[in-house]
Structure formats: structure tokens, C-alpha cells
Design goal:
Blueprint lengths: L14 H12 L2 H13 L3 H29 L3 H12 L6 H33 L8 H13 L1 H20 L3 H29 L2 H9 L8 H15 L5 H7 L7 H29 L9 H11 L5 H33 L4 H22 L19 H28 L2 H7 L6 H27 L1
Bound molecules: tryptophan.
Tryptophan binds next to helix 1, helix 2, helix 10 and helix 14.
């Protein structure tokens, strides 16, 4: 049960270990695959600004709230929230929020494993001499071939899931923590190397203008919802993974400062990913608004005719795989923690959850092939959305912000202000007062209004 001795609750070994591991949970496909394509699709700079506002005012405060609930509850999310509910003397049940989060972890894992599997497959393709000198048809065929073949997608997704299960099976320090400590620094090194390469080799000026300049900014509920959804998704807020990591954080961690570091790293990786992709895209006159295919079609097209293309491709997809793994383990951690409370071993719990997520993954795998034109909720007016679209957008744009509201209310309204402040810990000054008000009022109001406008609009 424990990492070191007796039955003590497990903990990360140091502040740095906590920060790297939790940054690993945040930094993932959402940064490297998601951010560039969502920003690209929505016109670049204007979207970035919206995203920054959503991050700073809504998602980051909620992220800190989730970490804090973990620190105060020191258990798996359902157990932690049940305890805190008792401590706050609230009559509203809190645990259902945690259970909803656990269901969401399985749904996210189910599609995450498939996309990560494709990254793994592309890394393998590069390693075995792929990309260099290929023509455009071959690159497109790699993507369509992968998606058209459920067996192939399932194979790579299974490999990735197995790696996730393997890491989560170990105890906290030799599993989650070691993965973060090794993969995060490696990821940063690779990303910086690729960024320098792309800025030199590609069209840096066009990339900066696109990413940081204003042009045809679209401002409607859909875009705002997408910015908020992306901000929640990228910080992994709202499913209990962050709460679980928070429960393992040592007593010496100062939460406000740690949050700042983690959010900064997450943002840095998203921006650097943009500065890897867009200089190359513009230099090769390709479409920055290509959407989800940006990484699996557009970018590989470029890898076919740049110097050392296969090597660059390999580094890029290895980086993507590392980013994905340190996140997928955080998606498995909360259910495994809950099952451990029920007496299961970590290995058995991880294998079970991995298998369930893998099987649910067929909804995504088939959405790319046999179910391509099957819109499960068309009768609700959600026409044109595949099972994959529904899962991905339903979780990011709905479940995550909803949990965000719940966390905000738990801390801003129910738990005692002073207990909250001491658990951070933070001095009783302006900064704390602002965060506390933001949680109590701004976060629920902003998300509530957004939901309402999305409903009527
Ligand atoms: N944040 C990760 C990414 O950007 C994905 C992720 C991991 C996640 N755990 C999560 C998203 C929990 C939402 C909720 O890729």
C-alpha cells in the first residue's frame, strides 16, 4: 500500500517530483496535438488571447482547487469528497461529482489511447525508415490506412494502454513519479531542439504573426466554449486525476507557487508545440487550419522533404508519446486509488481499468471507419457528430467545466475559509482573497453563463 513504510498514505518524494509528475499529467496530447489544431482552426492569435483568459481566470483557479481538495481529503476522489463534505457539514452529497469524474477518466482514456496509439505507430514508422522521400499520397495513406483498419488502431492502442498499465501498477514513487521525472525533462529537451530547428528551417516570422497577431478573430459562444474546454482539458481539471496527485503531494509543497509552475510549463509546451508546427506549415505553404489532421497528415508531409526528416519525425512522435503517457497514467490513477481502498492490488486495478478503457476505445476506433457516418445522438439534434466527437466534446466542454463549478463551490462556499487558507498555505492577503472570490463567484458564474448561452444559442 505505501511507498516507504507501514501503512502511511503514499506521497511523492520531493517538491520537484510532485511538480514534474503533475506537469506531466497536464502536458499531453492536448498541448501538442490539440492546442495547435484548435488555435489553427480558430484563427491563431485571437483564440490564444481567449485561451489565456480562460486559463488564468477559470481553469487555473479550478486546478488549484482540485489539488487542494486532494491535499485536504487525502484519499481517492470519492472518499476525499465524502470526508470533506462531512468536514464542511454540507447536506448536499459531494461524492457524485467524484464518481462522474471517474466515469469521465474512462471516457477520456478510451479515445486518448487511440490517438496516442497513432503517435506510437508514427514513431515506429519513422524509426523504421519511414517518411523520408515519401510522396504526398503515401503520407495521406498512412493516416487513412491507420484509421480504416480497426485491427491496426486497436493493436497500437493496446500497446499504449499496456505501457500505461505497467507504470500505474508500480507504487507511486517508482511508477507515476519515475515516469514524470524521466519523461518530462526528456520532453522539454526534445521540444526545445525541435523548436529551434523549426524556427531556423521554417518561416518563423509567419508563425509568430499567426500565433501572436490578431486577424479575423471570431467571437461567439462556440469559440469561447472551445477556449474554456481546451483550458480545462489541458490542465486535466475536473476528473479527479489532479485531486489524486494532490493527495500524494508532500506537506512542504506550497500550492499557489506549485500551481504557477505547472500552469506555466503547460502553457510553454503548448506554445512551443505551436512554434514547432506553424513555422514548418507556413514555410511549406500548407493549411494551418487543417484541424485534427495537422499532426498526422500536414506535419508528416513536411517531414518527407526536410533535412533529416525521418529523425525529426521520430523525435517529434516520441515526444508526443511521452506527453501522452504521463497524462494517461494520471487518468488511471484515481480509479486505481479507489479500487485500492477496496482491497485491490494496484496491478489488478490498473489492468482492469486499462481493459475497460481499451474496450470503450472501439467507439473511437470505429468512429474513424465503420461508424464514420453514424451519429448516435442525431435525434437530439447533434447531427454530424460521431461517437468520438461526442465523447471528446461532451467531456471537455461539459463534464470538466461542470466539475469545475462544483470544486469552486466546495471551496468558495462550503469549506471554512481559514481551513482552506491554511491548507494551501497562503498568507491572509490580497492574492488569497482574490483567488477565493474568483472561485466563489467568477468561476461558477462564468461557466454557468456560458452553459446557458450555449443552450439557448
Ligand atoms: N491534460 C492532458 C492533455 O492535455 C489530458 C488529460 C490528462 C486530461 N488527464 C486529464 C484531460 C483529465 C482532462 C481531464 O493532453
Amino acid at each position: 500500500m505505501s511507498d516507504t513504510s507501514g501503512n502511511a498514505y503514499p506521497s511523492f518524494s520531493s517538491r520537484l517530483a510532485f511538480i514534474l509528475t503533475t506537469a506531466g499529467a497536464a502536458v499531453g496530447l492536448g498541448n501538442v496535438w490539440g492546442f495547435p489544431y484548435v488555435a489553427g482552426k480558430n484563427g491563431g492569435g485571437g483564440f490564444l488571447l481567449l485561451y489565456l483568459v480562460a486559463l488564468a481566470l477559470v481553469a487555473a483557479p479550478a486546478f488549484m482547487a482540485e489539488l487542494l481538495l486532494g491535499r485536504m481529503g487525502k484519499a481517492s476522489p470519492p472518499t476525499a469528497l465524502r470526508r470533506l463534505q462531512a468536514q464542511a457539514g454540507s447536506r448536499v452529497p459531494w461524492a457524485p461529482v467524484a464518481w462522474m469524474g471517474l466515469v469521465a477518466t474512462i471516457l477520456i482514456l478510451s479515445f486518448y489511447d487511440v490517438i496516442a496509439g497513432q503517435a506510437l505507430f508514427y514513431g515506429w514508422t519513422a524509426l523504421t525508415g519511414g517518411f523520408a522521400g515519401w510522396d504526398a499520397g503515401a503520407v495521406t495513406a498512412l493516416d487513412t490506412g491507420f484509421k480504416a483498419s480497426p485491427a491496426m488502431a486497436a493493436f497500437w492502442s493496446a500497446l499504449f494502454t499496456a505501457a500505461t498499465i505497467g507504470i500505474v501498477s508500480f507504487d507511486i514513487r517508482s511508477g507515476l513519479e519515475r515516469a514524470g521525472k524521466i519523461m518530462m525533462p526528456a520532453l522539454f529537451l526534445m521540444l526545445i531542439g525541435l523548436m529551434v530547428f523549426a524556427l531556423v528551417e521554417g518561416d518563423a516570422a509567419a508563425a509568430f504573426a499567426f500565433l501572436f497577431g490578431f486577424h479575423d478573430m471570431r467571437l461567439d459562444t462556440g469559440v469561447v466554449l472551445e477556449a474554456v474546454g481546451q483550458a480545462f482539458f489541458t490542465l486535466s481539471v475536473g476528473v479527479g486525476g489532479i485531486m489524486t496527485y494532490g493527495s500524494y503531494m508532500g506537506a512542504d509543497v506550497r500550492l499557489p507557487r506549485a500551481t504557477l509552475w505547472i500552469v506555466a510549463m503547460d502553457l510553454a509546451v503548448a506554445l512551443m508545440a505551436g512554434l514547432v508546427i506553424f513555422p514548418l506549415v507556413f514555410a511549406h505553404n500548407l493549411d494551418a487550419a487543417a484541424g485534427p489532421g495537422l499532426i498526422f497528415i500536414t506535419l508528416p508531409l513536411i517531414f518527407t522533404n526536410i533535412p533529416a526528416g525521418a529523425f525529426v519525425a521520430f523525435v517529434f512522435f516520441l515526444l508526443l508519446t511521452f506527453a501522452a503517457i504521463t497524462s494517461s497514467i494520471s487518468l488511471m490513477a484515481p480509479t486505481v486509488a479507489r479500487l485500492q481502498e477496496a482491497g485491490w492490488s494496484r496491478a489488478r486495478a490498473a489492468a482492469t481499468m486499462g481493459l475497460i478503457a481499451f474496450l470503450c476505445g472501439f467507439a473511437t476506433i470505429w468512429s474513424f471507419s465503420d461508424w464514420q457516418d453514424f451519429y448516435p445522438l442525431a435525434f437530439l439534434g447533434l447531427d454530424g457528430m460521431t461517437a468520438f466527437d461526442l465523447i471528446r466534446e461532451g467531456v471537455s466542454n461539459f463534464v470538466l467545466p461542470l466539475s469545475g463549478i462544483a470544486y469552486a463551490l466546495m471551496i468558495g462556499w462550503w469549506l471554512k475559509r481559514d481551513d482552506v487558507r491554511k491548507a494551501l498555505p497562503a498568507p491572509d492577503g490580497a492574492l488569497f482573497a482574490i483567488w477565493y472570490r474568483v472561485l466563489g463567484f467568477l468561476v461558477p458564474l462564468a461557466i454557468g453563463i456560458l452553459f446557458l448561452t450555449a443552450l439557448v444559442g
